[in-house]
């Protein structure tokens, strides 16, 4: 899989309290006579969201939870009136958030009206974490972790 550095939301980002991804992607201004304020990202192509736990999450109470949303907004801090485009399917318990766990593994980003800035919001529901890091990005490729036997030819190698 090719990962474009400009499409990275987080690289080893520590998530201890509610947070916004360390990188909010600027989808660029729209101009023209009508001055549109929304865009349909990936028009004609499916884009995929990937969020991987890089360091196991921990909390003093051992019962913290996390959920993640993909949001767009007219401001880079996602604080004006952010539109939620995707939400993790459930609140994720601390015990599940171990290194190597995929919060989102090639989830197709829904089409729709996106505002200029695109980012992730990490929400702690019960207690703050004392440890835990993630990598997160969007790409045109789904993550494929199939393994092949030694000496197996896929037809492209």
Structure commentary:
Helices cover 0% and strands 39% of the residues. It is mainly β and 157 residues long. The protein has one domain: Sandwich (Jelly Rolls), CATH 2.60.120. Strands 2, 3, 5, 6, 7 and 9 form a 6-stranded antiparallel beta sheet that branches. The mean pLDDT is 87.
Please outline what is shown here.
The protein is mainly β and 157 residues long.
Broad shape: flat
Strand content: 35-45%
Q: Over all CA atoms, what is the radius of gyration? A: 17 Å
Q: What does the oligomeric state look like here?
A: single chain
Give the low-confidence spans. none
List keywords for this structure.
157 residues, 4-stranded antiparallel sheet
List the helices and strands and how they pair.
Blueprint: E1 8-14, E2 19-20, E3 25-26, E4 48-58, E5 65-73, E6 83-87, E7 92-93, E8 102-108, E9 117-124, E10 131-139
Antiparallel strand pairs: 1-10, 2-9, 3-9, 4-8, 4-10, 5-6, 5-7, 5-9
